[in-house]
Amino acid sequence: MLLLQFSTSHYCRKARLALGYKKISYQVSNLTPGLHILKLKPLTGLTTLPVLLPQEAGQVEAVADSTNIFRFLESYCPKPALFLPDRVQQSEANMLEDWLDESIGTATRFVYYHFRARAGRAIDSTIFSQVLIQVVQKQYGITDATAELATRRIEIALAQLSQRWQKSTYLVGEVLGIADLTAAALLSPLALIPAYQQQYPWLFEQIKQIHLVCGEPLPPGIEE
Ligand SMILES: N[C@@H](CCC(=O)N[C@@H](CS)C(=O)NCC(=O)O)C(=O)O
Fold it and tell me: Which pTM was predicted?
């Protein structure tokens, strides 16, 4: 299998966690932001990464979107399961996964790039990195005001996740599932922001444990 990705994308990390959890061997191809559209549009009709190419007879050519990649991997390799056998619990996990994907992953992007362009500039102050950050900020409309709204959304999300994770180790049910992997990947960029490290140590411990279970290298800002 081949995973088309941006190496630093938290949505691509989400797909890698699932591949790792299921111990599926795969290779990655890192696309260049901007030029990625030339490859993706004809392949999937979308412009976003990750995209998984199963590269096997009898399988689809390409699976676009991290949520679809979860579904594909579950049917391709059912064990270990990422979907819960209880339908009600899985429905709750689906809802959490969608909320994390559509709302919280985006909010993390806003807070992270806003930080990287200002107080976190020293993380990588090269012209290339700073130009890329400016392009991302323009593309998504990241400003002081929109980053502030995103910060509030993350606060609400972390209150919800802390209740669930502290109650039972997993967000839904008694085993690791799609909601856990999604939260671990999509909140991981916050590890580079000192204020989050100070206020939410349990979050980064949980992200670390999930990465270890999945055999995925730890995100920047989280140490062994
Ligand atoms: N809902 C999508 C979101 C993926 C996404 O936003 N990917 C970003 C990288 S983090 C991307 O490819 N952006 C490039 C673009 O929109 O052209 C998923 O879960 O796969």
Answer: 0.97
Is the pLDDT assigned to residue 126 strictly greater than 90? Answer: yes
Average of pLDDT values for 153-181?
95
User: Which fold does the domain 2-76 belong to in CATH?
Assistant: Glutaredoxin (3.40.30)
Contact at 8 Å (CB) between 172 and 93?
yes
Note the pLDDT of residue 24. Answer: 98
Query: Is it true that domain 87-213 has CATH number 1.20.1050.10?
Result: yes
Question: Which DSSP category does 190 fall into?
Answer: G
Q: Where are the alpha helices (DSSP H) in the chain?
A: 10-21, 36-44, 66-76, 87-99, 105-116, 127-140, 144-168, 178-186, 194-199, 201-214
d(CA 93, CA 71): 13
Ligand 1 pocket: which of 5, 9, 11, 17 to mutate (most atoms <8 Å of CB)?
11
How crowded is residue 142: how many other Cβ atoms within 10 Å of its Cβ?
A: 21
CA of 11 to the centre of ligand 1 (A): 7
Please tell me the distance between residue 38's alpha carbon and the centre of ligand 1 in angstroms.
15
For the chain, the domains span 2-76, 87-213
Q: How confident is the model at residue 166 (pLDDT cuts 50, 70, 90)?
A: confident
Compute, in angstroms, the gap from residue 168 CA to the centroid of ligand 1: 31
- Token digits of residue 85: 């056998």
What average pLDDT does this structure show over 79-93?
Answer: 98
Residue 176 has pLDDT above 90, yes or no: yes
Which residues have C-beta within 8 Å of that of residue 8, sequence separation ≥ 6?
none
